[in-house]
Amino acid sequence: MYDLKNRKTFVRRVKVNGINLENFYIGCTLSILGRLIKIIDFACEDTRKLLHKDVQVTFAMIKPMATNIVGKIITHLYDHGLRISKMKKARLTAEDIHVLYRSLVGDSTFPFLLEHLSGQLVYGMELVGKEAVSNCIKMLGDRDPLKAEPGTIRALYGIDSVRNCVHAASSPEGALQDIEYFFPPPPIRATRLRLTATLSNCTLCIVKPHAVREGKLGTALEIIDEGGFDVTALNMFIVEMDNAAEFYEVYKGIVQEYKGMVEELASGPCVAMEIVAKDKSVVTAVEFRKLVGPADPEIARLLRPHTLRAKLGKTKVQNAIHCSDLDVDGLLEVEYFFKILDL
User: Fold this and answer.
1) Domains plus CATH for the chain?
2) 279-317 residue pLDDT tens
3) Where is the DM10 domain (predicted)?
4) SS3 of 214, please?
5) Which of 255, 3, 59, 293 has its CA nearest to residue 176?
6) Is it the case that residue 174 has pLDDT exceeding 60?
7) N or C end: fewer C-beta atoms under 10 angstroms in the chain?
8) Whether residue 267 has pLDDT greater than 90
9) Cβ distance 183 to 220 under 8 Å?
10) Strand (E) positions, 53-150?
11) Which residues have a catalytic role annotated?
């Protein structure tokens, strides 16, 4: 990798943990040796032909659904070859609906879509994969769940042609327009489709980069919902090494795994969530910590087999989930991700 600005080699051929071929596509941002690198084009035409054959990005939006069903849909997409490269939870306005459903404004179902989605929370996603646009549409099935092929997402979880689980872009051009709209740059992000953190009786949950890469996000959402918690805000972040070190600074000199924890958090996209207990009489951070389980997944599997780390973790560093350890840390950590890192 050559730095054109400074006219020197940035990195020679070397293995970078946490990055594989499917992570590379035009427009993505990767954390490579502590530096965020945006992929803007191929170096040569031969590389384009070899690596980019049939690879596309598309846009999909999960409509208002129970969190456990959202998790099942995300797992379905992953199992069928689509990877999430951007994701956030946002509340739709009438203007947002007119933009995202511009091709259906004249359709007889549009007034019902407007009523169903206005002011509601949805999950927007940029998806990457081979022929992503057509494959995503095929996975969803017919707009009317009653006409959708068995095994498709709408057949499994849809109700009618309005409450049909997921909206998806119908063309590559439309996908790029939807992605640009749903994930705007910082100046516009402050006013359009803002993050939805409540900052009240909350705690932070991070699905770590290795767990995102391994397709465990959907299962995590299912366990969180079934464990008695709501996901009130969600965003996919790429955390720079300096920010990861700052975030975990409280563990420096305290836990042996500090360096590995920092490197893992900065190794690729993670998903941060604000968690709030469904039972408003309990302290969210304390109760959610119980659901996450011991830091060592091996110990968790012995003592707390139904916890998140027991089911999804691998090692003390790659233990799938970070959560706020103390009640007083919950709000501070949510603010760090949803107010400071999102600037």
Assistant:
1) 2-43 (no CATH), 55-182 (3.30.70.141), 202-340 (3.30.70.141)
2) 999 999 999 999 999 999 999 999 999 999 999 999 999
3) 1-55
4) coil
5) 59
6) yes
7) C
8) no
9) no
10) 55-62, 83-91, 121-130
11) 167
Query: Can you give the pTM of this predicted structure?
Result: 0.90
Which amino acid is located at 62 in the chain? I
Local structure of 159: helix, strand or coil: coil
* Residue 106 per-residue DSSP state: T
Q: How far is CA 117 from the centre of its chain?
A: 21
Q: What is the mean pLDDT of the chain?
A: 92
**Interatomic CA distance for residues 31 and 18, integer angstroms:** 9
Confirm if 100 and 182 have CB atoms less than 8 A apart. yes
Range 34-42 contact pairs with CB under 8 angstroms and sequence separation of 24 or more? 34/240, 34/241, 34/242, 34/266, 35/10, 35/240, 35/241, 36/238, 36/240, 37/1
Does the pLDDT value for residue 27 go beyond 60? no
Q: What is the CA radius of gyration of the chain?
A: 20
Indicate the pLDDT class of residue 170, thresholds 50, 70 and 90. very high
Question: Which among 285, 109, 322 is positioned nearest to 209, based on CA atoms?
Answer: 322
Measured CA to CA, the distance from residue 159 to residue 145 in angstroms comes to 6
Does residue 65 contact residue 221 with C-beta atoms inside 8 Å?
no
Which stretches within 17-109 are classed as H helix?
45-51, 67-79, 94-100
What pLDDT score was predicted for residue 187? 83
Cα separation, 199 vs 206, in Å, equals 16
Rounded Cα distance, 289 and 245, in Å: 22
C-alpha 59 chain-centroid distance: 13
* 48-60 residue pLDDT tens: 777 666 789 999 9
